[in-house]
Specification:
This protein is α+β, with helices and mostly antiparallel strands and 312 residues long. It has helices at 5-8, 12-19, 70-79, 83-90, 98-103, 130-135, 139-145, 206-212, 226-233, 249-258, 271-282, 304-310; strands at residues 26-29, 32-35, 49-52, 56-59, 67-69, 126-127, 148-150, 162-168, 174-180, 191-192, 217-223, 239-240, 259-265, 286-288. The protein has a five-stranded antiparallel β-sheet with strand order 1-2-3-4-5, with helices on both faces. A five-stranded antiparallel β-sheet has the order 6-7-8-9-10. The longest helix has 12 residues, at 271-282. Bound molecules: zinc ion. Zinc ion is lined by residues 37, 39-40, 48, 59, 61-62, 66. Residues 37, 39-40, 48, 59, 61-62, 66 line the site of zinc ion.
Length: 312
């Protein structure tokens, strides 16, 4: 049970009001405030700071000095106060009802039950697929990671005609499949993650890395998607993916067992939020966080030379 639901529920608008921050921020999308940074108070830059309704906030000028998640983090970073002081200040401003408690976003809410190894026989129904072959031409890499295109007309499944990507623990035990819809139609999700499986516990490519290299490796590339990991592997570059741009504490720990350092390469549209992740990574391993070359939004499409140039 979370005793700090009320403190955590305080919205950005309420925070700003209570802390005397002039609210010139605007809603860029339905769940994101953007505006000048309340900490370093820029004269001209009116869009360096963002606060999302799920609590994630960061300033791409202050970087690790002003980023975090939720009203408690925000209060601490803004005022320099400790956790207890933050809770005392915020609790009266928040709302705490049973319904609120149920829906309040919790960082570890996924990790309630121990995940169980997966026993389905999906790989028996892997078929040739042009999209997958084009995206990942190296057949040896596809085989090594166990990825395939699943099509089983005899069985109705929401992951039929999807590319299936194995989700394994560091020992190589599989816990399920991440399904990638090659060509999502309007309203269809690009990815389907197995229900109930805690994503924050898995790091794609960790097991394969341990099979190919002596651990810890000097440096591992940290990229958003498993497909990008495999693309890097086909260029003999060691890479892992936290199944997204963000990295959980568990994934951070896993990473520190695999490599001494990391080159963190989220997609371009996550470069701002990524500053916060890079700061957390730096606390565990040495970390480089280079910007992608001009004209590139996704590291999956970089050449070997371009990737090597990033770390020179
Ligand atoms: Zn700032």
């Amino acid at each position: 049970m979370d005793n700090y639901v009320a403190a955590r529920s305080v919205s950005f608008a309420t925070l700003a009001g209570a802390l005397g921050i002039e609210l010139t921020h605007f809603k860029r999308s339905k769940d994101e405030w953007v505006g000048p940074c309340p900490r370093h108070k820029p004269k001209n830059n009116k869009a360096c700071f963002r606060y999302k309704d799920d609590g994630l906030f960061n300033c791409f000028v202050c970087l690790k000095d002003f980023c975090g998640r939720g009203s408690i983090d925000f209060y601490k970073a803004y005022t320099g106060a400790g956790f207890q002081a933050a809770v005392e200040f915020l609790t009266p401003l928040g709302i705490s009802t049973p319904a609120q408690q149920k829906t309040a976003p919790e960082r570890d809410s996924e990790a309630t039950e121990e995940p169980k190894p997966f026993t389905g026989k999906y790989a028996k129904h892997f078929v040739e697929n042009d999209w997958l072959k084009k995206r990942l031409p190296d057949a040896a890499v596809r085989e090594r990671y166990g990825i395939g295109f699943y099509s089983n007309p005899a069985r109705k499944s929401k992951v039929s005609n999807h590319v299936l990507i194995p989700i394994k623990d560091p020992a190589g035990v599989q816990y399920g499949w991440l399904a990638r819809n090659p060509v999502p139609l309007e309203g269809q999700p690009k990815y389907i993650w197995p229900t109930g499986l805690p994503k924050n516990r898995f790091l794609f490519g960790g097991y394969e890395l341990s099979q190919a290299y002596q651990l810890p490796v000097r440096v591992v590339y940290l990229v958003e998607s498993p497909l990008c990991v495999m693309k890097f592997a086909s260029m003999s570059l060691p890479a892992v993916s936290p199944f997204g741009w963000n990295v959980s504490d568990e994934q951070l720990h896993l990473l520190s067992t695999l490599a001494k350092g990391t080159v963190y390469l989220p997609d371009r549209n996550k470069h701002c939020e990524g500053a916060c992740v890079a700061a957390r990574l730096s606390a565990q391993v040495w970390c480089r966080f280079p910007e992608l070359p001009q004209g590139h939004d996704d590291p999956e499409h970089l050449s070997l030379e371009q990737i090597q140039a990033l770390t020179r």
